[in-house]
Amino acid sequence: MNTWSGTWVAERLGVELAGDERLRGMLGLALRRNPKRAHLLVSNVLGKHVPQTPSVVYGHGVELGRRVRQLLGDAAAGRAVVLGYAETATGLGHSVADGLGAAPYLHSTRRPVPGVATAGGFEESHSHATSHLLLPEDPSLLAGDGPLVLVDDEFSTGNTVLNTVRDLHARYPRQQYVVVALVDMRSPADAGRLEQFAREIGARIDLVTTASGTVRLPAGVLEKGQALVAEFEAATGDPQGAGRTAGPGARGTARQAPTGPQPPTDRITRVDLRWPANLPDGGRHGFTPNHRTRLEAALPAMADRIAAALPATARRVLVLGFEELMYAPLRLAAELERTTPADVRFSTTTRSPVLAVDDPGYAIRTRLAFPAHDDPADGPGERYAYNVAAAGFDAVVAVVDSAADTPALHAPGGLLARLAEHTLHVLLAVVPSYVPPVAQDAPERPATMLPEPLRGPAFSSYAPEEVGWLLQDLSDVTLEAPTEEREEAIQSGGAHYAESLPVEYQPSEQYQRLFQNALDASAARLAHAVGVVTETVLAERSPRPVLVSLARAGTPVGILMRRWAQHRHGLDLPHYAVSIVRGRGIDANALRWLAGHHDPRDVVFVDGWTGKGAITRELAQAVEAFEKAEGVTGFDPEIAVLADPGSCVRTYGTREDYLIPSACLNSTVSGLISRTVLRADLVGPDDYHGAKYYRELAGADLSVAFLDAVSARFEEVTEAACAEAKDLLAADRTPTWEGWAAVERISEEYGIHDVNLVKPGVGETTRVLLRRVPWKVLARAGAGADLDHVRLLAEQRGVPVEEVPGLPYTCVGLIHPRYTRGATGADGTAVTR
């Protein structure tokens, strides 16, 4: 009778495996070198730590996929997307997608790829390497509403799945999730947590597994496991648990090849697979049914090339994959198994540090350790190949991607040299590491693990592809304060304006009619300005810009620019919204995220309009300070705006001061998002600035209607907008800052002596009337319909409108100077209406 490969651990730690009779055939046990969990369930059918027949490994995944198809039905299966977990389940997930049918596949990754936007991220709480990234080439891959199939090798606590669904459901809500695993080892309490979570999010979560059971852990198992590892390592004199002598009470020894003279390199043969051009090496950036068809057609010839390079005497052959690269080597191994008489096995290298003990009752008999050879983002470190040494392989075919074909791979002590210590023949097959075209020219930089952007409909009423908000959601925090209290606190120095929010203005029916009339009258004019500024950006700044709007006024403009680029050029530009706060600067964490996912040289900051240019100056100072502190260069602080009446920037759609209807309202024309918040008790050093999503105002939301009204006019203004952009590109657009000079003059003439209380332009004047305590409005003599809404708001608040000849702006709003709650307006009426 064969000894179960979990006996050694079970006897020493008291760990029990209970459940299906298949469990012991599928799983063994080993000891982790990990402070979070003592034991490791070692799969015999996954092809990671234990070399296994490739048809067995692939067959388990395909069968699970077929069962998922039966569960969903053909129609729902045709809309499903499969997501696998790095690193151990990347090949299993891909195999499940094959069994499911025509489903696209994506796996998480721990390898950031510069220039590829992240569609999500989550944590694996017990793992040695916890952070996962989702990097689909097609940003819409996860945005559909079909079932999402999540595949992992084991389902032990459910934490990883909960973290994933929580992250993705907030961005791309859907009705059904299917969790797939080889084994379900949850406790009854953990099973109940998943059911409760499904009820909370209002979605169905199904589970498909090959076997199920539980791991019964005695009290203090973590401490006992750590002590056992330490004891074993001390006895062997090997801090990595790879010495050649047995630990106290051990029946076996930990085995690793001794260091010494390197084997001759002439035993290492490179095999040219002739991998099809532009065929992804796996699911890191997505793998479509078309990719699957191309791979199936190419597999026989690639396997023949490997077979031709094997020695005729090779009877036992291992195909060894590389960390996340599991599927391509697995399929090559399966084809080799099908077409050659050799006994072919498959496994892969791993980051996971595990104690090795040479005992039949222990799952990890031997371990090869070698330096990382793919320039990992988290720095150098050891990597491992388990149960390869002393396993009697006549040849080992190492399959790596091109990113890992580095000098470290070929160096003394590297993976190839370590393999050559244990087999007479080492073959190296390199698969081109697929990099999406959008990322191929991006400079290398480490990616951050900051939260991914928030997206609608979970945050904002905009479609998820229109904008990603680099903000944190403070919707559940009470931040609103009465206008008068806020004004007094701000002017007295007791609080910053960004530490609270004004009560959201609820427009009257008369005001809403004014907004609609203004939109009807100005939609073509706005579309023209959108076209001018977008064409200028594409010609002068970047052919594929990353639009970064300054929340919230800049966000509708950023979306319109994105829509113009799609309409006129077929471009699908990334667009994010970030916070900038006067006197506090731009959100540095948002810049870190952008620098980790895009080339800073492609970033174009977008705002709605300029007033006196305070934010223009704020952004320039903030970017300079950020680049100096972070050592990141390339961000251009020049803002692209729809309207530049203050002559503060070079990139604009117009310098006229006219009504932009989105300035008439607050959140109800800005995706139902509040102004941004920066308060020390809510925003820590590693947090994004905050904002609220006013879901309760959905009935009054005009955000998408505003965008649609303007973009509907693109076609009719295209020719004129492109012509004006061409003329502007040849013109002198040097900012004159005449707006700033006018504000300084007005501040002194009216005895205010504070430029921050003078808000020039139609947009800024509207903000004063909606959010602050206004004193008076200055209007250019003869200003017409552009000021209808301003006059109405001023009347409602008892604020005088004073006509001024020669005013450089259409209007200027003056905030009440030295405000206290006992103050009155210039005409003696209260300003608290």
Features:
elongated; 19% strand; alpha/beta; 833 residues; 6-stranded mixed beta sheet; disordered C terminus; single chain; 6-stranded parallel beta sheet; 22 helices
- Span of the ends, CA to CA: 89 Å
Oligomer: single chain
Shape: elongated
Averaging pLDDT over every residue, what do you get? Answer: 83
- Beta-strand content estimate: 15-25%
Supply the helix-strand structural class: alpha/beta
Low-confidence stretches: 123-130, 240-263, 440-448, 821-833
Q: What topology, given as strand order, has the largest sheet?
A: 1-10-9-8-4-5
Q: Describe the biggest sheet?
A: 6 strands, mixed
Number of strands: 33
As a percent range, the share of helical residues equals 25-40%
Radius of gyration: 32 Å
Task: Report on this structure.
The chain is α/β, with parallel strands linked by helices. The protein is 33% helix and 19% strand. It has 22 helices and 33 strands. A hairpin with a 7-residue loop joins strand 6 (120-123) and strand 7 (131-134). Helix 3 crosses helix 5. The longest helix is centred in the middle third of the chain and has 32 residues, at 509-540. The protein is elongated. The N and C termini lie far apart (89 Å).
In short:
With 833 residues, the protein is of the alpha/beta class. The model is unreliable at 123-130, 240-263, 440-448 and 821-833 (pLDDT under 50).
